[in-house]
Amino acid sequence: MRAVLLLVPLLASGCFTPPQPAPIDPLQWHPLHLPGKRSTVYSRVDCEGRRAWRAMSEASASLWRRRLDRTVTRTTSIEFSWWVPTTIPSADLSVADTADSPVRVVLAFDGDLSRLSMRNRLQFQMAEMLTGETPPYATLMYVWDNRAELETVLPGARSDRVRKIVVERGPANLRRWLTYRRALADDFERAFGEPPGRLIGIALLTDTDNTGTKAEACYGDVLVHP
User: Fold this and answer.
1) Is 40 helix (H, G, I), strand (E, B) or coil?
2) What domains are there in the chain, each with its CATH number?
Protein backbone atom coordinates (compact mmCIF):
# COMPACT_ATOMS: atom_id res chain seq x y z
CA MET A 1 0.00 0.00 0.00
CA ARG A 2 1.35 3.42 -0.88
CA ALA A 3 0.45 6.84 0.51
CA VAL A 4 -1.44 8.98 -1.98
CA LEU A 5 -2.40 12.63 -1.89
CA LEU A 6 -6.05 12.80 -0.85
CA LEU A 7 -7.99 15.45 -2.73
CA VAL A 8 -9.78 17.06 0.18
CA PRO A 9 -10.40 20.72 0.95
CA LEU A 10 -8.24 22.27 3.63
CA LEU A 11 -9.90 22.77 6.97
CA ALA A 12 -9.88 26.34 8.24
CA SER A 13 -6.36 26.75 9.57
CA GLY A 14 -3.16 28.72 9.36
CA CYS A 15 -1.34 26.03 7.34
CA PHE A 16 -1.39 27.63 3.92
CA THR A 17 2.08 26.79 2.57
CA PRO A 18 1.85 24.23 -0.24
CA PRO A 19 3.13 20.95 1.16
CA GLN A 20 6.55 19.66 0.19
CA PRO A 21 6.99 15.90 -0.22
CA ALA A 22 8.02 14.36 3.09
CA PRO A 23 11.43 12.64 2.86
CA ILE A 24 11.27 8.85 2.92
CA ASP A 25 14.47 7.99 4.77
CA PRO A 26 14.23 4.60 6.51
CA LEU A 27 16.64 5.81 9.19
CA GLN A 28 14.56 8.90 9.88
CA TRP A 29 10.86 9.69 9.51
CA HIS A 30 8.91 7.37 7.21
CA PRO A 31 5.31 6.17 6.76
CA LEU A 32 3.88 3.11 8.45
CA HIS A 33 0.75 1.99 6.65
CA LEU A 34 -1.94 -0.01 8.40
CA PRO A 35 -3.50 -3.00 6.62
CA GLY A 36 -6.91 -2.25 5.15
CA LYS A 37 -6.72 1.47 5.98
CA ARG A 38 -6.47 4.54 3.81
CA SER A 39 -3.31 6.48 4.52
CA THR A 40 -3.14 9.81 6.31
CA VAL A 41 -0.95 12.22 4.34
CA TYR A 42 2.02 13.79 6.16
CA SER A 43 3.97 16.69 4.68
CA ARG A 44 6.44 19.38 5.73
CA VAL A 45 4.90 22.88 5.97
CA ASP A 46 5.05 26.26 7.68
CA CYS A 47 2.20 26.25 10.20
CA GLU A 48 1.32 29.36 12.19
CA GLY A 49 4.90 30.63 12.12
CA ARG A 50 6.60 27.28 12.80
CA ARG A 51 8.14 24.57 10.65
CA ALA A 52 6.04 21.48 11.21
CA TRP A 53 4.68 18.18 9.97
CA ARG A 54 1.12 18.52 8.74
CA ALA A 55 -1.25 15.56 8.86
CA MET A 56 -4.29 15.40 6.58
CA SER A 57 -6.73 12.58 7.31
CA GLU A 58 -9.88 11.61 5.44
CA ALA A 59 -11.41 8.41 6.86
CA SER A 60 -7.81 7.25 7.17
CA ALA A 61 -5.19 6.05 9.63
CA SER A 62 -1.44 5.65 9.20
CA LEU A 63 1.64 6.66 11.17
CA TRP A 64 4.57 8.92 10.43
CA ARG A 65 7.34 7.10 12.29
CA ARG A 66 10.97 7.36 13.32
CA ARG A 67 12.93 4.45 14.80
CA LEU A 68 15.04 5.00 17.93
CA ASP A 69 17.07 3.01 20.43
CA ARG A 70 17.24 4.90 23.70
CA THR A 71 17.49 3.84 27.34
CA VAL A 72 14.77 5.43 29.48
CA THR A 73 15.90 6.60 32.93
CA ARG A 74 14.28 8.62 35.72
CA THR A 75 15.59 11.80 34.10
CA THR A 76 14.33 11.03 30.59
CA SER A 77 11.59 13.32 29.35
CA ILE A 78 9.84 13.80 26.04
CA GLU A 79 8.88 17.18 24.60
CA PHE A 80 6.36 17.60 21.80
CA SER A 81 3.96 20.18 20.41
CA TRP A 82 0.93 20.32 18.15
CA TRP A 83 -1.54 22.72 16.58
CA VAL A 84 -5.13 21.57 16.07
CA PRO A 85 -7.77 23.62 14.21
CA THR A 86 -10.78 21.52 15.21
CA THR A 87 -11.71 18.42 17.18
CA ILE A 88 -13.54 15.36 15.83
CA PRO A 89 -16.98 15.79 17.47
CA SER A 90 -18.08 12.17 17.11
CA ALA A 91 -14.81 10.65 18.37
CA ASP A 92 -14.45 8.90 21.72
CA LEU A 93 -11.14 7.17 22.45
CA SER A 94 -12.74 4.86 25.02
CA VAL A 95 -14.98 3.23 22.38
CA ALA A 96 -13.44 1.05 19.67
CA ASP A 97 -15.90 2.09 16.95
CA THR A 98 -15.20 5.83 17.41
CA ALA A 99 -11.60 5.75 18.69
CA ASP A 100 -10.14 8.58 16.58
CA SER A 101 -8.07 11.59 17.58
CA PRO A 102 -6.86 14.68 15.70
CA VAL A 103 -3.39 14.22 17.22
CA ARG A 104 -1.42 11.46 18.89
CA VAL A 105 2.24 11.17 19.77
CA VAL A 106 3.00 7.45 19.84
CA LEU A 107 5.95 5.87 21.69
CA ALA A 108 7.06 2.27 21.17
CA PHE A 109 8.95 0.33 23.84
CA ASP A 110 10.92 -2.89 23.76
CA GLY A 111 10.39 -5.66 26.34
CA ASP A 112 10.28 -9.37 27.02
CA LEU A 113 7.60 -10.73 24.68
CA SER A 114 7.57 -14.06 26.55
CA ARG A 115 5.86 -12.26 29.44
CA LEU A 116 2.82 -11.50 27.33
CA SER A 117 -0.41 -13.40 27.74
CA MET A 118 -1.34 -16.04 25.18
CA ARG A 119 -4.03 -13.70 23.84
CA ASN A 120 -1.45 -10.93 23.34
CA ARG A 121 1.00 -13.29 21.66
CA LEU A 122 -1.68 -14.45 19.24
CA GLN A 123 -2.56 -10.81 18.49
CA PHE A 124 1.12 -10.05 17.88
CA GLN A 125 1.49 -13.04 15.54
CA MET A 126 -1.51 -11.91 13.52
CA ALA A 127 -0.18 -8.34 13.36
CA GLU A 128 3.21 -9.61 12.16
CA MET A 129 1.52 -11.64 9.42
CA LEU A 130 -0.35 -8.55 8.22
CA THR A 131 2.41 -5.95 8.51
CA GLY A 132 5.65 -7.89 8.27
CA GLU A 133 6.92 -6.72 11.65
CA THR A 134 6.34 -7.61 15.28
CA PRO A 135 4.47 -4.95 17.31
CA PRO A 136 6.38 -3.29 20.14
CA TYR A 137 6.13 -4.83 23.59
CA ALA A 138 4.24 -1.75 24.77
CA THR A 139 2.87 1.38 23.12
CA LEU A 140 2.24 4.62 25.01
CA MET A 141 0.29 7.44 23.38
CA TYR A 142 -0.27 11.07 24.32
CA VAL A 143 -3.67 12.05 22.91
CA TRP A 144 -6.36 14.72 22.55
CA ASP A 145 -9.81 13.42 23.50
CA ASN A 146 -13.28 14.94 23.61
CA ARG A 147 -14.58 13.42 26.83
CA ALA A 148 -11.99 11.96 29.21
CA GLU A 149 -10.51 14.12 31.96
CA LEU A 150 -6.92 15.29 31.68
CA GLU A 151 -4.34 12.70 32.79
CA THR A 152 -6.82 9.84 32.32
CA VAL A 153 -5.10 6.63 31.20
CA LEU A 154 -7.24 4.91 28.57
CA PRO A 155 -6.57 1.29 27.60
CA GLY A 156 -6.30 0.51 23.92
CA ALA A 157 -9.69 -0.13 22.38
CA ARG A 158 -8.46 -3.37 20.81
CA SER A 159 -5.23 -4.23 22.66
CA ASP A 160 -4.19 -3.94 26.29
CA ARG A 161 -0.58 -3.44 25.13
CA VAL A 162 -1.59 0.10 24.20
CA ARG A 163 -2.21 2.84 26.76
CA LYS A 164 -3.30 6.42 26.03
CA ILE A 165 -2.73 9.38 28.35
CA VAL A 166 -5.10 12.29 27.76
CA VAL A 167 -3.08 15.52 27.76
CA GLU A 168 -5.69 17.73 26.07
CA ARG A 169 -9.50 17.61 25.90
CA GLY A 170 -12.33 19.51 24.28
CA PRO A 171 -12.20 22.69 22.17
CA ALA A 172 -10.70 25.20 24.63
CA ASN A 173 -7.16 25.23 23.19
CA LEU A 174 -7.82 24.93 19.48
CA ARG A 175 -5.89 27.02 16.90
CA ARG A 176 -2.85 27.62 19.08
CA TRP A 177 0.49 25.90 19.46
CA LEU A 178 0.59 23.76 22.60
CA THR A 179 3.83 22.33 24.00
CA TYR A 180 4.18 19.49 26.51
CA ARG A 181 7.10 17.99 28.41
CA ARG A 182 6.50 14.64 30.11
CA ALA A 183 8.50 12.45 32.49
CA LEU A 184 8.62 9.31 30.40
CA ALA A 185 9.39 6.67 33.04
CA ASP A 186 6.71 8.02 35.39
CA ASP A 187 4.07 8.05 32.65
CA PHE A 188 4.95 4.55 31.48
CA GLU A 189 4.81 3.09 34.99
CA ARG A 190 1.48 4.78 35.67
CA ALA A 191 0.09 3.37 32.44
CA PHE A 192 1.54 -0.16 32.50
CA GLY A 193 2.48 -0.79 36.14
CA GLU A 194 6.11 -1.66 35.36
CA PRO A 195 9.33 0.15 34.39
CA PRO A 196 9.80 0.93 30.69
CA GLY A 197 12.13 -0.94 28.38
CA ARG A 198 14.15 0.76 25.68
CA LEU A 199 12.41 3.42 23.64
CA ILE A 200 12.52 2.02 20.09
CA GLY A 201 10.27 4.33 18.12
CA ILE A 202 8.31 7.59 17.95
CA ALA A 203 5.37 8.23 15.65
CA LEU A 204 2.74 10.83 14.84
CA LEU A 205 -0.83 9.68 14.23
CA THR A 206 -3.86 11.62 13.05
CA ASP A 207 -6.70 9.18 12.39
CA THR A 208 -10.34 9.38 11.31
CA ASP A 209 -10.88 5.84 10.04
CA ASN A 210 -13.42 4.87 12.69
CA THR A 211 -15.60 7.98 12.44
CA GLY A 212 -15.19 8.32 8.67
CA THR A 213 -14.53 12.05 9.04
CA LYS A 214 -11.76 14.52 8.14
CA ALA A 215 -9.08 16.06 10.34
CA GLU A 216 -6.00 18.22 9.99
CA ALA A 217 -3.23 18.92 12.49
CA CYS A 218 0.33 20.22 12.68
CA TYR A 219 3.10 18.66 14.78
CA GLY A 220 6.30 20.28 15.95
CA ASP A 221 9.54 18.38 16.51
CA VAL A 222 9.54 15.59 19.07
CA LEU A 223 12.53 15.75 21.42
CA VAL A 224 13.83 13.20 23.93
CA HIS A 225 15.80 14.72 26.85
CA PRO A 226 18.56 14.46 27.94
Assistant:
1) coil
2) 32-111+137-225 (2.60.120)
Asked if residue 1 has pLDDT above 50, the reply is no
Instruction: Note the pTM of the prediction, 2 decimals.
Output: 0.88
Instruction: Give the per-residue pLDDT at 51.
Output: 95
Query: Distance (Å, rounded) from C-alpha 66 to C-alpha 142?
Result: 16
Q: Which residues, 6+ apart, have CB-to-CB distance to 97 below 8 Å? A: 210
CA–chain centroid gap for 50, Å, is: 20
Kindly give the pairing relationship between strand 138-145 and strand 162-169.
parallel
Neighbours of 2 (CB within 10 A): 6
Tell me if 151 sits within 8 A of 166, measured CB to CB: yes
Residue 5: per-residue pLDDT: 24
For residue 158, the model assigns a pLDDT of 83
Helical spans, DSSP H, in the chain? 118-131, 184-192
